[in-house]
Design a protein that fits this description.
Elements: H1 2-31, E1 34-35, E2 57-59, E3 65-69, E4 76-78, E5 91-93, E6 98-101, E7 115-117, E8 122-123, E9 139-141, E10 148-149, H2 153-160, E11 166-168, E12 173-174
Parallel strand pairs: 3-5, 4-6, 5-7, 6-8, 7-9, 9-11, 10-12
Antiparallel strand pairs: 1-4, 2-3
The chain binds 2-acetamido-2-deoxy-beta-D-glucopyranose (4 copies).
Residues 84, 105-106, 108-109, 130 line the site of one 2-acetamido-2-deoxy-beta-D-glucopyranose.
């Protein structure tokens, strides 16, 4: 019986470290898609046990990532679908860089996200309708990019239900009429 208990404990510990590594793996996958002339991501080292010691990353008490702060870091490159795996993420700020390409629909899996700052970049996709799944979202800045298409109804519903309190989509290439909302 004692042997069984010890085996179970070892199993539990290894499953915890696998979980923290998967968030580090997701961020490291993103790093490989970024150009970082000022080496602000130098501490993003995948050989560390978890990403909580990396600069610009904040974790909760369970070693799960809750913030990524990369505003004005001179980064170019793209966002990646793997960001959708950061299941406890509350704040994602990548404002004032030169990030291009699309807003991955997988960001709609970040159900704890409170604040999304992607403004002042070169993002040139449509706004994914999956962002309407972000019921915790209070604040979303997408202004000053090259986004096209219409604002998805699912996102407008977040405003209507008063979840989302600030949405800035100014200075893009969006179609349709947008009333001033904040
Ligand atoms: C981004 O730039 C704007 C104006 O250019 C500035 O007001 C804002 O504080 C900057 N944000 C970050 C995170 O650097
Ligand atoms: C970004 O690059 C500009 C000049 O290219 C430099 O002045 C600035 O300090 C850099 N910002 C950071 C956060 O490294
Ligand atoms: C994440 O989002 C994508 C696209 O919105 C979806 O296809 C996928 O099933 C989601 N993954 C998880 C783990 O929820
Ligand atoms: C919205 O974005 C525009 C364009 O970048 C900016 O001038 C304006 O100050 C922003 N408004 C708010 C409330 O953030």
């Amino acid at each position: 019986m004692r042997f069984v208990a010890v085996t179970f404990l070892v199993g539990a510990i290894s499953s915890i470290s696998v979980e923290s590594n998967s968030e580090g793996d997701a961020l490291y996958a993103w790093k490989t898609y970024l150009t970082d002339p000022n080496n602000v991501l130098q501490s993003w080292d995948p050989t560390l046990n978890n990403p909580c010691t990396w600069f610009h990353v904040t974790c909760n008490g369970q070693n799960s990532i809750i913030r990524v702060d990369l505003g004005a870091a001179n980064l170019s490159g793209t966002l990646v679908p793997q960001l959708g795996m950061l299941s406890n993420l509350q704040y994602l700020y990548v404002s004032n860089n030169s990030i291009s390409g699309e807003i991955p629909s997988q960001l709609g899996n970040l159900t704890k996200l409170v604040s999304l700052g992607l403004e002042n970049n070169q993002l040139n996709s449509q706004i994914p309708s999956s962002l309407g799944n972000l019921k915790s979202l209070r604040w979303m800045k997408l202004n000053s990019n090259k986004l096209s298409g219409e604002i998805p109804i699912s996102v407008l519903k977040l405003i209507y239900w008063r979840n989302l309190q600030l949405l800035n989509v100014s200075d893009n290439q969006l179609a349709g009429t947008v009333h001033h909302i904040n």
